[in-house]
Structure to design on (1146 residues):
């Protein structure tokens, strides 16, 4: 028993002993695993003084020179660094001393002395362009120097390279797909809606930063109650360009190589500007005969928000001479212009909140255009073909003056706009129509007077009162000669008045608004075909009373707005036989809008609206009227209205710090139409007559834009795909048939600057037009544009550019262009030499079609043009 | 004799070059995107920071905050009123981050931290805290410099940083330092804070000094608590510290609600 007990005890003790030994071994091994294997000690000393260096960094490096361990020297220069893995090098670094790298084999493990010699240290200065965009609350600040490239001659060229900003070919500036609502220079609205004159003439050297003020409400008195979805742009100038007169003068001349003769090309400019705290001025004379459309600089880009029922003077003539449309081609390739422009814009800052702006402009333009077209009209299983050749000369004189006073305070907002405009166009053309030759003429003149008054008052208890009134008068005589050798004299005259008053207050977190107003429209249309002495006239008179209540809830994250526009219309249409049709109608136009700011980057917005639009005189005249020299149109004289409803949704993502902007928008609309156009042909004349026949038109589109800007190579990449579809009805062989046309397009833009000597600007578009009536018929177009910019040394820039147009119709030749520009800048001077259309391409052909017609159009191009110019900035 | 003169001249030149070599003055600009509220961390704010390095001293501060303070001080000195200052400050970028870190000031191995809540300025001095770094073998190029990755768990947050051995300075943004090269990029693993260097330049030497304001002495923990309380419940802070009601308006005129959200601080702290 005792033996058994002894043996059991012995076994237990042995087991315990073994366990303890194994645990000791395991712990020791564990300690060994944790303990560093490689231990390096030494001293770092100064070569000159032989003294130890304090706080030098001693790093143990792997084979690929990466640090695997490091330590710092003590005040006597000694160090002690350990690692678990065998290093390949020991490196000693200290600012102001040359780096020491010792292969591990040469390192004396006992006590190595590393001797460091002083070495002047100048850091390689670096700056990246991530700072190109900065955020200041709701404002994005783009640094111009961060985006500018050598070839950029105006601020518009730089804006095109800024992420989130788009510039349309007409000069309209958009931020995230929406047009801007103000263009400020140093916070002042000098140019109003005609800002292209600034964006295309202010040099990028003058501008320090471009600010995009998101959700900008320009009226201070409304900043607490009415919120905007649009952004404003503000140019911040460099200090040296403010508080004094600055400007630019340019003189340039050259040749336009025509087949038989050579004409003179010119491009001259004298621009003076002054921007200071109490006044701003921009005055410019410019002329051009090199294919630049100066009209775009004067056209309005910003429009005041208006209600659907408010009428405006027409901007385009009802009647025009030629039936051929302008080609879908970059204007500089075909525009044979002789343009002169004079504009002056002056803004007086009368006090902190008071501005007086005076603007005047004059434009004189002469344009030659030569085109030929073959139009095949499909009718009753037959084809009616018209061959046309047009050689036209258009002369235009345009003069406009505006005076604007604005008091923009927190309590009061008072604005008065007065403007007058006169536009005269004379058109003479030699037109050959199916072997009939005609010398035709067209004369149009347009006179428009506008007066607008706006007053807003905020009470101390946050209530807002508004009163607005505007009036417009226009006179628009339009004379053309016809293919029938008759002359048509058309005159449009009109007067509109809109007036409303409003009250806004806040109830329990809701902004409640009540607007009530009246509009009045009186339009007259006289038409005389002189040879047959046939004079007819139509009048249209409309009075409308409306109430527009709305309610809005806004928090930091979301906005919801509900509007219900209640309208009562009384319309009176009188036809040529003095027969009058009177109608009184009542409509409700509901609208709902919502937006949700999901987080700092993502925003969703959507809206729905139902509208009724009364057809005005241009859609109701019943007398036969030639809308061009060979097309006669007439409507049904019915006092009708169209109903339309639309849905809109948008998703936006903007991450300015990453230079990434994108949006996706969807829109859909359905409209009821109350007439369909009936066609007939006789003696080269197309007769169009509106037939009452109700049908629906559906449109929907989806569009996205992805824009990424990188500091690397100053890269800016944008992709903009778009798809739109339209369903409507056409009268074919006297039968109403549904037609669907689809349009798919994609724009791609890429700018890169791999180094300071070279940059590349590429732009490409693809578009596909598809008609789906009687099977599917489509045509695809590609446009490629590229520019290579070389800067061999500071000041000199050479641009080699090419354009190519290609489509899937094999009967049409591809067309390509090339241009070369050499520009040298020295101090304030610059000299440039440019050759446009180097290959001297002469003609461009393109096809347009739908189920009713097909047109093959050939346009004579601008011949090779050489221009030498010299400029001076002061 | 001539030999001796030559030796003295050579020694003087080498001493001068030694002094000159050690007069290092560098400025690094960092951009920061950060989340300030735990209930909506995706809503980012932005700031720009400056790291001034002169020999073994450094200062880290928000350039926007400092520009605003300098503008305000100069306008007050010239007799401008409150409204003028507000109007002038609209034109510059402002920051709500008022922290400044002065390393090796007032003496070696100590740092001075200053901060501001409303109108009160606070200051404390403490021993420099050393992050314990773990080196990784990942590399990338930042601003043309070869960078190596390192990570640390420091003051309550896990940081992943990129440092460049090309610039043998053991500095970095905020309180991150102590690597064998300048830290050019630092990001916390929660993605609340991200500092990234956008500019490095040589500057003229002028001694780094603490901004000359009157500071209230405070301890680190107390300051963190004050900032926490202000950020977490501004209304309550106003009421208890100043005996006033919080009244503030948004640009659209609506009264702003006092903040009442869990703040996110660089030093991860939670107080009740």
């Amino acid at each position: 028993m005792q033996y058994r007990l002894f043996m059991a005890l012995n076994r237990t003790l042995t087991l315990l002993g073994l366990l303890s030994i194994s645990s000791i071994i395991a712990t020791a091994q564990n300690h060994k695993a944790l303990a560093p294997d490689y231990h390096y000690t030494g001293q770092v000393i100064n070569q000159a003084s032989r003294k130890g260096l304090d706080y030098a960094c001693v790093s143990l490096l792997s084979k690929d020179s990466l640090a695997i361990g490091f330590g710092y020297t003590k005040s006597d220069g000694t160090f002690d660094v350990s690692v678990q893995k065998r290093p390949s090098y020991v490196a000693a670094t200290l600012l102001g001393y040359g780096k020491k790298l010792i292969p591990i084999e040469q390192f004396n493990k006992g006590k190595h002395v590393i001797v460091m010699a002083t070495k002047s240290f100048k850091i390689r200065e670096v700056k990246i362009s991530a700072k190109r965009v900065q955020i200041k609350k709701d404002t994005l600040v783009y640094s111009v120097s961060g985006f500018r490239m050598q070839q950029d001659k105006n601020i518009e060229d730089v804006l095109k390279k800024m992420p989130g900003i788009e510039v349309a070919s007409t000069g309209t500036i958009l931020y995230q797909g929406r047009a801007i609502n103000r263009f400020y220079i140093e916070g002042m609205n000098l140019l109003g809606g005609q800002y292209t004159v600034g964006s295309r003439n202010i040099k990028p050297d003058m501008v320090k930063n471009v600010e995009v003020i998101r959700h900008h409400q320009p009226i201070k008195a409304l900043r607490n109650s009415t919120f905007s979805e649009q952004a404003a742009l503000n140019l911040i100038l460099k200090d040296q360009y403010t508080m004094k007169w600055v400007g630019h003068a340019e003189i340039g001349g050259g040749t336009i190589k025509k087949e038989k003769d050579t004409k003179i090309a010119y491009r001259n400019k004298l621009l003076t500007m002054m921007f200071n705290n109490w006044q701003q001025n921009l005055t410019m004379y410019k002329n051009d005969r090199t294919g630049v459309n100066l009209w775009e600089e004067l056209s309005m880009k910003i429009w005041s928000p208006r209600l659907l029922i408010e009428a405006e003077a027409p901007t385009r003539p009802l009647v025009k001479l030629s039936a051929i449309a302008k080609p879908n081609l970059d204007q500089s390739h075909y525009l044979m212009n002789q343009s002169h422009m004079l504009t002056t814009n002056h803004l007086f800052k009368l006090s902190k909140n008071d501005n007086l702006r005076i603007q005047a402009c004059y434009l004189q333009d002469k344009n030659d255009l030569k085109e030929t077209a073959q139009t095949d009209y499909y009718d009753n299983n037959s084809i009616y073909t018209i061959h046309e050749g047009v050689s036209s000369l258009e002369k235009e004189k345009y003069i406009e003056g505006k005076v604007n006073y604005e008091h923009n305070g927190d309590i009061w907002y008072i604005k008065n706009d007065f403007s007058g405009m006169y536009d005269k166009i004379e058109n003479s053309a030699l037109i050959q129509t199916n072997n009939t030759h005609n010398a035709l003429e067209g004369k149009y003149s347009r006179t428009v007077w506008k007066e607008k008054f706006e007053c807003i008052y905020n009470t101390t208890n946050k209530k807002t009162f508004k009163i607005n009134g505007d009036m417009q008068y226009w006179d628009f005589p339009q004379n053309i000669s016809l293919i029938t050798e008759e002359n048509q004299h058309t005159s449009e005259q009109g007067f509109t008045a809109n007036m409303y008053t409003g009250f806004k207050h806040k109830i329990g977190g809701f902004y409640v608004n009540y607007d009530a107003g009246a509009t009045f429209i009186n339009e007259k249309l006289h038409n005389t075909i002189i040879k047959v002495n046939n004079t007819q006239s139509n009048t249209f008179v409309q009075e409308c009373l409306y109430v527009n209540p709305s309610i809005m809830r806004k928090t930091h994250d979301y906005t919801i707005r509900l509007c219900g526009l209640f309208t009562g219309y009384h319309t009176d249409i009188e036809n040529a036989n003095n027969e009058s049709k009177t109608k009184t109608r009542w409509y409700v136009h509901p609208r709902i809008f919502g937006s949700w700011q999901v987080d700092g980057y993502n925003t969703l917005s959507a809206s729905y609206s139902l509208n009724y639009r009364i057809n005005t005189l241009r859609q109701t005249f019943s007398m036969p009227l030639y809308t061009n020299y060979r097309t006669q149109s007439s409507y049904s004289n019915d006092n009708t209205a169209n109903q339309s409803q639309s849905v809109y949704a948008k998703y936006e993502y903007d991450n300015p710090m990453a230079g990434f902007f994108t949006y996706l928008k969807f829109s859909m609309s359905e409209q009821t139409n109350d007439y369909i156009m009936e066609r007939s042909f006789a003696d080269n004349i197309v007769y169009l007559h509106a037939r009452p026949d109700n049908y629906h038109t559906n449109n929907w589109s989806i569009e996205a834009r992805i824009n990424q800007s990188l500091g690397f190579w100053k890269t800016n990449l944008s992709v903009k795909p778009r798809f739109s579809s339209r369903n409507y009805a056409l009268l074919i062989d006297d039968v109403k048939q549904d037609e669907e046309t689809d349009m798919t397009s994609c724009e791609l833009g890429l700018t890169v600057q791999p180094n300071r000597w070279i940059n590349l600007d590429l732009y490409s578009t693809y578009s596909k037009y598809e008609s789906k009536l009687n099977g599917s018929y489509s045509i695809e177009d590609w446009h490629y544009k590229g520019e290579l910019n070389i800067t061999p040394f500071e000041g000199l820039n050479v641009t080699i550019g090419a354009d190519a147009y290609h489509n899937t119709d094999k009967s049409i030749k591809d067309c390509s262009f090339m241009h070369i520009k050499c520009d040298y800048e020295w101090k304030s001077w610059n000299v440039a030499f440019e050759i446009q259309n180097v290959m001297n391409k002469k003609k461009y052909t393109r096809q347009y079609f739908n189920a009713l017609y097909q047109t093959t159009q050939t346009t004579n191009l601008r011949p090779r043009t050489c221009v030498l110019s010299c400029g001076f900035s002061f | 004799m001539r030999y001796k003169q030559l030796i003295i001249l050579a020694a003087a030149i080498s001493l001068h070059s030694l002094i000159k070599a050690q007069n290092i003055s560098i400025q690094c600009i960092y951009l920061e995107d950060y989340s300030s509220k735990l209930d909506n961390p995706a809503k980012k704010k932005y700031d720009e920071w400056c790291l001034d390095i002169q020999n073994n001293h450094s200062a880290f501060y928000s350039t926007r905050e400092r520009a605003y303070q300098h503008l305000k001080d100069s306008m007050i000195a010239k007799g401008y009123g409150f409204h003028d200052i507000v109007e002038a400050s609209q034109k510059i970028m402002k920051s709500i981050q008022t922290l400044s870190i002065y390393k090796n000031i007032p003496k070696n191995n100590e740092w001075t931290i200053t901060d501001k809540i409303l109108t009160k300025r606070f200051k404390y001095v403490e021993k420099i805290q050393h992050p314990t770094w773990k080196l990784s073998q990942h590399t990338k190029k930042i601003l043309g410099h070869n960078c190596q990755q390192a990570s640390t768990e420091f003051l309550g947050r896990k940081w992943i940083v990129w440092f460049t051995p090309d610039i043998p300075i053991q500095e970095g943004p905020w309180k991150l330092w102590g690597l064998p090269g300048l830290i050019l990029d630092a990001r916390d693993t929660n993605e609340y804070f991200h500092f990234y260097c956008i500019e490095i330049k040589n500057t003229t030497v002028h001694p780094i000094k603490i901004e000359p304001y009157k500071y209230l002495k405070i301890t680190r923990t107390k300051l963190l608590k004050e900032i926490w309380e202000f950020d977490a419940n501004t209304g309550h802070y106003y009421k208890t510290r100043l005996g006033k009601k919080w009244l503030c308006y948004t640009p659209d005129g609506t009264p702003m609600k006092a903040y009442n959200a869990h703040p996110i601080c660089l030093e991860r702290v939670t107080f009740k």
The two ends of chain A are 120 Å apart (CA to CA). The CA atoms of residues 465 and 503 of chain A lie 5 Å apart.
